[in-house]
Structures are given as C-alpha cells and as structure tokens.
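For reproducibility, we list the full input for the NDP complex.
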Amino acid sequence: MARTVLVTGGNRGIGLAIAQAFAKQGDRVAITHRGTFDAASAPDLLGVTCDITDSAAVDAAFTTVENELGPVEVLVANAGITDDTLLMRMSEEQFTRVIDTNLTGAFRCAKRASTKMLRNRWGRMIFISSVVGLYGGPGQVNYAASKAGLVGVARSITRELGTRNITANVVAPGFIETDMTAVLPEDRKAEILKAIPAGRLAHVDEVAATVTWLAGDAAGYITGAVIPVDGGLGMGH
Ligand code: NDP
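The corresponding predicted structure, in tokenized form, follows.
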C-alpha cells in the first residue's frame, strides 16, 4: 500500500537516498530542503522548502505536503548538522545550534506529524541518529548529545502513542559516505576505518534499506528500538 512519506533534509546525502528508496517502491514522497534541490534530477520527489529550526516553517511544510500528497504517514527526521570542536573550545552557541537542529528540529517535526497520525490511527516515525549518540565522539559533545536525545524522544513517543499503531524508532548509522564525512581529515578517517569491524564506510543505500523496512508492515511490532547500521562499530553500546 502506497504511503505519504516526508524526509527532512532529503535533498542530498542519506536523506536523498532514503527518499528515492521510498519513491522506488511506489510511495508518495516529499523532501524538505533549504533552497538547494535539483528537482529535475528527482522528478518523483516533491520538494518543500523548510528550515527545521523554525516551527512556522515546519508547520507550513507539513501543510503543503498534506495538500499535495495527503497527511504524512511516515516521517523520517533526517536533517542534521555537525559543528565539531573540543569541549573546552565549544561555545554555548555551537552547542545549542546543533541541539536546535538535530534534536529540537526532530521534535518539531514529530509533534506536527503526530496530530494526523493519531487521527489516522497509523504512523511511522524514524529518527536518524548516529553511532556517536551512544558511543560518543571526541569533539562531538553537541552532536552526540543531540543524537542520544533522539533515543529518548523515540522511546517516549513509543510509550505515548504505541497503542495507536504508531511506531517510533531510531536508526543509528556509523560512518557513511556523504558530504558530512567527506570533510573529515584523512588521519581521522584512517583511525575510524581501523575501528570498524566491517573495514569500510557504508553506502547511503544501506541506511535507506533499513529505513524503508522499518516503515513497512513487516516491522509493525518494532518500536522504541535503536537499529545500528554501522558495520559493527558501536557493538555493545
Ligand atoms: P549531509 O550533510 O549530506 O546533509 C544534511 C541534510 O540536513 C541536508 O539536506 C541539509 O540541508 C539538512 N539540514 C541541515 N540543517 C537543516 C535545517 N536547519 N533545516 C532543514 N534541513 C537542514 O548529511 P548526511 O546525509 O551525511 O546525514 C544525514 C543525517 O544522518 C544527519 O542527521 C546525520 O547526523 C546523520 N548521520 C550521518 C552519518 C554520516 O556518516 N554521514 C553518520 C551517522 C548519522 P541543506 O542541503 O539545506 O544544507
């Protein structure tokens, strides 16, 4: 059965791969972007401008999607940023900006999505966290806190809305080949590779496959879970 899917930050990287995987299986898919979306290269995706740090913009984006494709049945809260530096050097602004995007941004979207999901007695929320959320990362106090916070968000939603056929899960990717990891210094990349049991970074499609599976009927009894897609990097965390 085709569903209406919204992927935040779906104009590139992991988000785009997720959006394309849903579109490929016949779902109606919208993505949010902040002005840079090559609509011609992805004609089966509805692009909606939205900065997830702005509640009014989130509300407007959902309204557009509802009008064009119907109520959002599957929310993939994917948009996120890093702003790495060591704790001693991290400004409060650097900390709160990452939290506001990665954690509060996901909250804004989940809250807006929940109304219609409750009315429809069906919904899937998938939060894209990171192995770093539970494992920690040097220079990533802000990012790790935001990604760990998503676990609390998903598990609380699970307890609040579980009886209404609404699931809330977290996908925790390890290191994936995208713009976000392209900026890592070579020595840091080599260090990371040594720690990954699979011995390689992942492809975006490997995250997308997990997300589409979680949104499908086969995964209806999986909720409040943290699913790693990390080549074994975060084992035991
Ligand atoms: P990219 O940097 O390639 O893309 C980030 C996306 O988030 C872009 O679409 C960007 O939009 C969007 N975004 C950032 N800030 C905002 C905002 N304020 N409002 C709306 N959209 C915003 O990242 P990846 O594809 O690598 O990562 C996607 C998600 O996966 C992130 O949450 C990231 O933390 C997580 N992740 C990534 C890993 C990796 O190795 N790459 C590993 C683990 C988790 P715009 O194009 O406008 O900037």
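The pocket of NDP is lined by residues 8-9, 11-15, 32-34, 36, 50-53, 78-81, 101, 128, 130, 173, 175-176, 178-181 (CB under 6 Å). The domain at 4-175+207-226 is CATH 3.40.50.720 (Rossmann fold). Both points were considered when choosing residues for closer inspection.
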